[in-house]
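The methods section describes the discrete structure representation at length, but only in general terms. The central task, working out the structure tokens from the amino acid sequence alone, is never made concrete. Nothing conveys this as quickly as seeing an actual entry. For illustration, here is how one protein appears when written out as sequence plus structure tokens:
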Amino acid sequence: MARRLSSRSGEITAALEAIHRDILDSGTCLGLVGPAVVGLPIPSSIYLMGQAPGPHEAQFGRPFAWTAGKTLFRWFAEMTGAGEDEVRSKVYIGAVVRSFPGKAKAGGDRLPSPAEIAACRGFIEREIEVLRPRLVIPVGRLAIREVLGREEPLAEVVGKTVRASFHGYETDVVCLPHPSGASTWFKVEPGKSLLAKALRLLAGHPEICRAFGEKRARRA
């Protein structure tokens, strides 16, 4: 896989850049509130998918740029020793939708609607077709549902490696809870132990070891 990505890296990067242009040209991602946000066009065998940009991501021009990102990259540091910049350079970061959905009436960020999710799904399909990832990491319930195609309690999927077909490509899936500061699931049991198990699984996964180096990746 590493050789395939290396030999086609220029072609893959160009294809991802074209997808990113289309995402950015979509403006507010077909009705969502904030401007579209994309990560780096990284030719990677690892695809991490979040829920949606928050209210601050557009300001920084990258996904996971605020509180949730600090927690997410701390998890990666614990399992690989890599800092945020290195993770961003080795893991492709996508999202269920690419624009901030706005605030919910009851407070907090609004969940994207089924129509908004469907409208943005084509971007994910194109990314998966280009990257053909060997490892997909959905972050949070919405992303997990999008990848697995079904609603599952976090306790049933976090801490396991699941084999799934995602947009026609067979891949390993390791689910993570959402690292939002509003979430307490991963801070108390059983979430705390299941998160630790998921990070150990990721640390030992061949694609993480290949990207970050086996000795570093097995530190978790």
